Inverse folding.
């Protein structure tokens, strides 16, 4: 795991590196949603990215940055879902093994995505210590290179390419909102936006039941939540220290909403955009709705981070 902070040059290089593999995802608009918020809202649809999440960008950059000797030994990570599937697919594209350590209580759809992408699954008890121990053991036994889900400069740089694309697709942004879990996505996007659109206000969206990023930025050090509780399963990881530093450096403000607001936002995005997005993705629109007065009259970019919703678990599946 690299402790190097990503630069705009790293993100531009990542964009070139992954261009043959990652999708250029669309930006959607809706007049009714604009009127509801009182702003011009641009939805960057990373739910339509490969494996259904922005995570493919960072995983792809990390895998294809490896030299041939390191790549041949494979990669390893721990993931509750989207990052694992993304790394598995990126590794498959390069023809190398990907070992994915998964907690026993992982989302069923996301676990299926990992297997279908070609990942070699290793289960463990659902604690961070167990995940890290399993990754270390696989690294020692097989020589696989750890690709951390968020505290890795190559991963952060890859995620930042979404923000570069958005700037190409939209004529200026006054504000940008993305989800914050471990902090890899916002770290990369904040680095890109501060370099290419320094006036843009940067906001991280976080569930109130897992508000470690907000607390950590206020405290000046990582403040873990002992038992995070939210339907936003992709945002339950504790923010990485390197990610906290990046968010602090680039003056990212974190705003929180409860699960009821997230559910309402999911439904509204389905009604107007006809997109199924996961709770960890819909939280960006939930935050915008909750704080609409702050963004009135502005051009706002919202990153919809993923669309891997377990319809059976959510009760949305057809009978």
């Amino acid at each position: 795991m690299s402790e190097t902070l990503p630069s705009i040059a790293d993100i531009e290089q990542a964009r070139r590196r992954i261009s043959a593999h990652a999708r250029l995802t669309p930006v959607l608009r809706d007049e009714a949603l604009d009127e509801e918020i009182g702003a011009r809202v641009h939805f960057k649809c990373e739910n339509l990215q490969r494996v259904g999440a922005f995570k493919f960008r960072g995983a792809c950059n990390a895998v294809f940055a490896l030299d041939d000797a390191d790549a041949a030994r494979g990669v390893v990570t721990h993931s509750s879902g989207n990052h694992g599937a993304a790394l598995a697919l990126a590794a498959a594209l390069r023809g190398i093994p990907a070992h994915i350590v998964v907690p026993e209580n992982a989302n069923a759809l996301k676990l299926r995505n990992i297997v279908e992408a070609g990942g070699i699954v290793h289960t463990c008890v659902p604690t961070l210590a167990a995940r890290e121990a399993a990754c270390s053991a696989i690294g020692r036994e097989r020589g696989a290179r750890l690709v951390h889900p968020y505290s890795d400069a190559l991963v952060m740089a890859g995620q930042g390419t979404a923000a570069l694309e958005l700037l190409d697709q939209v004529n200026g942004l006054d504000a940008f909102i993305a989800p914050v879990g471990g902090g890899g996505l916002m770290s990369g996007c904040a680095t890109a936006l501060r370099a290419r659109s320094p006036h843009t206000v940067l906001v991280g969206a976080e569930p109130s039941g897992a508000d470690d990023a907000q607390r950590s930025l206020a405290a000046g050090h990582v403040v873990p939540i002992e038992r995070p509780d939210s339907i936003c399963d992709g945002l339950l990881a504790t923010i990485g220290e390197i990610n906290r530093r990046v968010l602090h450096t680039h003056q990212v403000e974190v705003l929180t909403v409860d699960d009821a607001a997230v559910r309402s936002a999911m439904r509204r995005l389905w009604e107007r955009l006809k997109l199924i997005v996961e709770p960890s993705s819909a939280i960006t629109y939930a935050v915008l709705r909750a704080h609409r007065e702050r963004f009135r009259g502005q051009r706002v970019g919202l990153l919809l981070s993923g669309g891997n919703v377990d319809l059976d678990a959510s009760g949305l599946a057809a009978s």
Remarks:
- The radius of gyration is 18 Å.
- The first strand starts at residue 27 and ends at 28.
